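queue> pop job 88
queue> type: inverse folding (structure -> sequence)
queue> payload:
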């Protein structure tokens, strides 16, 4: 009798340490259109939250700079970290981001995908991509 192997892992959720939770929530929820689906409130302040956009999510946690479990980074904590969100229509995301006043790179075609990039307040690079048959190096005209 052959044994059946079931996949137990359901998703990967990147965890970002952030310097200012209020600023990060404004960026992801108000700016990029994520929805806060979970949070931990400590001493009246959101210390951790999960934000989701469609089927993808991130966890954000503000690090303490004093006391127990404190940490003071030498620079921006997100430098060198990139996350790619694969979308049905990255151009729609681009238009929504621009409408909300968030600075994003011009959307272009690269490696068979429409691609736009921006940085969050802590320096994490956020990319939105969707597959296309449009020619390489095409630029989206607002």
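queue> result:
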């Amino acid at each position: 009798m052959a044994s059946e192997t079931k996949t137990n892992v359901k998703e990967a959720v990147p965890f970002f340490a952030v310097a200012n939770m209020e600023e990060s929530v404004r960026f992801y929820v108000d700016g990029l259109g994520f929805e806060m689906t979970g949070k931990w409130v400590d001493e009246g302040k959101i210390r951790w939250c999960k934000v989701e956009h469609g089927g993808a999510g991130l966890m954000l946690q503000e690090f303490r700079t004093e006391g127990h479990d404190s940490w003071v980074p030498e620079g921006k904590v997100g430098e060198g970290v990139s996350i790619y969100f694969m979308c049905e229509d990255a151009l729609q995301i681009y238009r929504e981001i621009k409408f909300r006043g968030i600075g994003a790179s011009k959307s272009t075609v690269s490696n068979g995908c429409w691609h736009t990039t921006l940085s969050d307040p802590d320096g994490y690079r956020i990319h939105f991509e969707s597959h296309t048959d449009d020619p390489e190096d095409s630029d989206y005209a607002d």
